[in-house]
């Protein structure tokens, strides 16, 4: 696989979006902003978001939708790496933001569900109907963790629904090509979940006592972050500690593609054949471009 360093000096990059002009718009969680990286590596600030912009995606309205964790990490510098640490006492919760590329207006669309404040929204994916699934990672507390969950919301601001609760550390989220399955990576467990979709925005009950189907638990100490799905159905999940991308087949088989960072956090696909992958190496603050062995799944909305 050909790997090329595109940009460095980013403040914990995540949430890459492959744009039609060849640039990538990504979040800088520590930097609290959206940044555009041009094909030649130049960086320009798109918008200051505040909080902790985590995931990002183009919605049906052409705007960028952002899962903002509200600043749920203290940042630790250790041996040249930037590492997300505990949640600061100032953290009150996160939100779903919308940034209009045409007007430059940034708004908060959702910050609660059923009267309960969102804790740390993390990643999102739009379905064909124009609604979006998103994960809430939860956060740490001095006494343990606030659990996370899986939500569905409409882009017109009219509906937000909690579809799963009491999950340990939900992170990357994506849809199978036929949109009958929601995939969710749990960071701490090193586990990829699969949830069956009953209808748009509604998940089937899990099997037995489980919230969903287990695709695979990674062996040893490996942490999972955000993800993207291939056109053929494999789920490519950014992997921490064993730095790289782990491609999960729906059958549970895996293959690992290493990248030079312990904290690889996300991947997106683009290019004319969808075989160009952009990977965020967040510990070292770098963005890589690679030729992927298989085409990625084209998202429902792009810009």
Largest sheet: 5 strands, antiparallel
Oligomer description: single chain
Strand content is over 45%
| Rg (CA only) | 17 Å
Tell the overall outline.
Answer: globular
Q: Mean pLDDT across all residues, rounded? A: 98
How far apart lie the N and C ends? 27 Å
Description:
The structure is a single chain. The protein is mostly beta strands. The chain contains no helices and 31 strands. The chain has strands at 3-7, 13-18, 24-28, 33-37, 43-48, 53-58, 64-68, 75-78, 81-84, 95-99, 106-110, 112-113, 116-117, 121-126, 131-136, 139-141, 144-146, 148-154, 160-167, 170-175, 181-186, 191-199, 202-203, 213-217, 223-229, 235-240, 244-248, 254-258, 264-270, 276-281, 286-291. The strands form nine sheets. Strands 20, 21, 22, 23 and 24 form a five-stranded antiparallel sheet that branches. Strands 1-31-30-29 form a four-stranded antiparallel sheet, with no helix packed on it. Strand 10 (95-99) and strand 11 form a beta hairpin. The two termini are 27 Å apart.
């Amino acid at each position: 696989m050909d790997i090329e360093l595109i940009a460095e000096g980013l403040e914990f990059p995540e949430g890459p979006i492959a744009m039609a002009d060849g640039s990538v718009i990504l979040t800088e969680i520590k930097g609290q902003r959206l940044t555009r990286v041009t094909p030649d590596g130049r960086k320009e600030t798109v918008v200051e978001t505040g909080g902790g912009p985590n995931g990002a995606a183009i919605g049906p309205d052409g705007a960028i939708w952002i899962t903002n964790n509200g600043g749920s990490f203290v940042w630790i510098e250790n041996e040249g790496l930037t590492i997300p640490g505990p949640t600061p006492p100032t953290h009150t919760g996160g939100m779903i933001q919308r940034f209009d590329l045409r007007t430059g207006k940034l708004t908060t669309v959702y910050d609660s569900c059923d009267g309960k404040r969102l804790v740390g929204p993390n990643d999102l994916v739009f379905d064909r109907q124009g609604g979006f699934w998103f994960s809430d990672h939860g956060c740490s507390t001095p006494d343990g963790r606030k659990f996370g969950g899986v939500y569905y919301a409409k882009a017109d601001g009219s509906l937000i629904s909690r579809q799963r609760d009491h999950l340990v550390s939900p992170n990357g989220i994506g849809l199978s090509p036929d949109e009958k399955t929601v995939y969710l990576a749990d960071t701490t467990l090193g586990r990829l979940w699969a949830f069956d979709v009953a209808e748009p925005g509604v998940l089937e009950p899990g099997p037995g006592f489980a919230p969903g189907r287990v695709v695979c638990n990674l062996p040893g100490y490996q942490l999972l972050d955000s993800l993207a799905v291939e056109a053929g159905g494999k789920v490519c999940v950014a992997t921490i500690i064993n730095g790289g991308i782990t491609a999960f087949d729906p059958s549970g088989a895996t293959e690992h593609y290493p990248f030079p960072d312990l904290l690889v956090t996300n991947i997106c696909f683009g290019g004319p054949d969808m075989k160009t992958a952009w990977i965020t190496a967040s510990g070292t603050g770098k963005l890589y471009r690679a030729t992927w062995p298989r085409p990625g799944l084209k998202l429902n909305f792009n810009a």
